[in-house]
Amino acid sequence: IEGGGAHDEL
Amino acid sequence: MNVFRLAGDMMHLLSIVVLLLKITGIKSCRGISLKTQELYLLVFITRYLDIFTNFVSLYNTVMKLVFLGTSSAIVYYMRYDRIIKLTYDKEQDTFKYLLLVAPSAVLALATSHVYTVLEVLWTFSIYLEAVAIMPQLVLLQRTQNIDNLTGNYVFLLGSYRGLYILNWIYRFFTEKHYRQWLVWTCGVVQTIIYCDFFYYYFLSWQNNEKLALPA
Questions:
Q1: How many angstroms separate the CA atoms of B134 and B138, rounded?
Q2: Which of B10, B67, B122, B150 has the fewest CB atoms below 10 angstroms from its CB?
């Protein structure tokens, strides 16, 4: 995931 | 997607539906902070800019559109609806936007993982969401006779945050590359902000009394 961030969350 | 994440999303959705029903049903937004609602709209706009470039799932895309649409509707009703806008406690809703937006922007610029517009705005939205409820909590403290719907709205919103923490704990143990101190820290801070409210919410529920926050 990009940046280790939760980009698949809302 | 795990059960905590899904339950969290549903709580979030339900909180917005409860708020919209309150506003349009009884034609009143008494006790609701327009500032918090506008900050949430800003959170959604800055976080979901990737809606067309970063496809995750149909579920994600639809939910993003629903969140953008419903929060725009709430802001529209509170600002422009002929009847509803008269019930807005403008004099009481005095929290300064800048107090929340400026630190979020500075932190986003200082800590963004990559310096692209989308990534910095995404990081900004994470910080801003953590504190966006504050004008609402301050307004609740000033409101006498908090109605059930307003209390339930904040309760559902807090539950969403709590469930997301469970979701992160679950993902931390089940996914190899799931490391995100930023989201964790902000999520925990945000949930702590609700603790005081939760305490009084349960107290009023247990004693079967109307919710009131001490000033």
A1: 6
A2: B10
Does position B29 have pLDDT exceeding 70, yes or no?
A: yes
pLDDT bracket for residue A2 (50, 70, 90): very low
For residue range B105-124, what is the model confidence (pLDDT) as tens digits? Answer: 999 999 998 899 999 999 99
**Testing the interface with A: which of B114, B180, B185 to mutate, by most A Cβ within 10 A?**
B180
Q: Do A5 and B177 touch (CB under 8 A)?
A: no
Q: Structural domain boundaries of chain B?
A: 3-205
CA distance B186 to chain A (A): 12
Which residues from B are below 8 Å from A8, CB to CB?
Answer: 56-57, 60
Of the candidates B205, B124, B193, which has an alpha carbon nearest to the alpha carbon of residue B161?
A: B193
Residues with Cβ < 8 Å from B98, sequence gap 6 or more? none
